[in-house]
Amino acid sequence: xxxxxxxxxxxxxxxxxxxxxxxxxxxxxxxxxxxxxxxxxxxxxxxxxxxxxxxxxxxxxxxxxxxxxxxxxxxxxxxxxxxxxxxxxxxxxxxxxxxxxxxxxxxxxxxxxxxxxxxxxxxxxxxxxxxxxxxxxxxxxxxxxxxxxxxxxxxxxxxxxxxxxxxxxxxxxxxxxxxxxxxxxxxxxxxxxxxxxxxxxxxxxxxxxxxxxxxxxxxxxxxxxxxxxxxxxxxxxxxxxxxxxxxxxxxxxxxxxxxxxxxxxxxxxxxxxxxxxxxxxxxxxxxxxxxxxxxxxxxxxxxxxxxxxxxxxxxxxxxxxxxxxxxxxxxxxxxxxxxxxxxxxxxxxxxxxxxxxxxxxxxxxxx
Length: 367
Known about the structure:
CATH class of the largest domain: Alpha Beta
Shape: globular
Number of helices: 13
């Protein structure tokens, strides 16, 4: 019998993940997946050529890409990468029946319902109740999305909230804003809450403290500024890095709280992106949540919202696959089968929830 394959991709500013799944009733069976470093490729077509085998496209019944940019029409330009995604061109070149483009945060939203408990770390247990959920993800950029609850299911809706105006909350943050205005003119939250944003914050701290020691300069040159700042801050080995990461965490928490308030995310706030799992120890030390809850008269309201960190870096990929499967008539994927390979897909046959439920541990919502 002919295979019924789903092609999924998650194109970020730094990496692209591609995967093939076989669709069997309401289950996606992983076939294979691969991660690509975007710096080594000129665009998505090159990634497709390397990933797809000869004749494989004939068995692909639906495909979707989650892309880190606004989706408008058939041609998308990534915000933080000099790539253009041409839906019609890719569809034609690789003989695909159809190819859908969705925002990368919407893709993560579609994937949240496929996560198992081990894919989530609880920052704040809260008291979940039926309602919307929110998603915020710092990586190469800052993405934000809303998961609207319609009484029966969650409907992911992307936004470009990461590009809204940064609002400082204290004298130090006002100084940071002034510093970044001189550098960029317009200062969005993404200029601070992202990998490049952490570099900006460290540059600001350095402007107040003076040059870093030679030891640190060598690490920056060899490993990059953001990962070294995080590492030194968590280890407590450099005071400037400690200050920079603390400022970063506080602003990240404040903006997550802003999003949660605007969306009334009583079902939970999900922290995605590549940065959060790498700084989980710092995220859990209270500074993020203190800023998240610091909403004046709404402090108690914020304390009741569950806050989770997404640990599975394939969530957007799984969400793109689920979205692609949803385009096949009559298909509603409810699980991803165990791939048998650690770190690829959750080893879980988690059924979708129809309503948010109180949790003894982290409980992913279901779409």
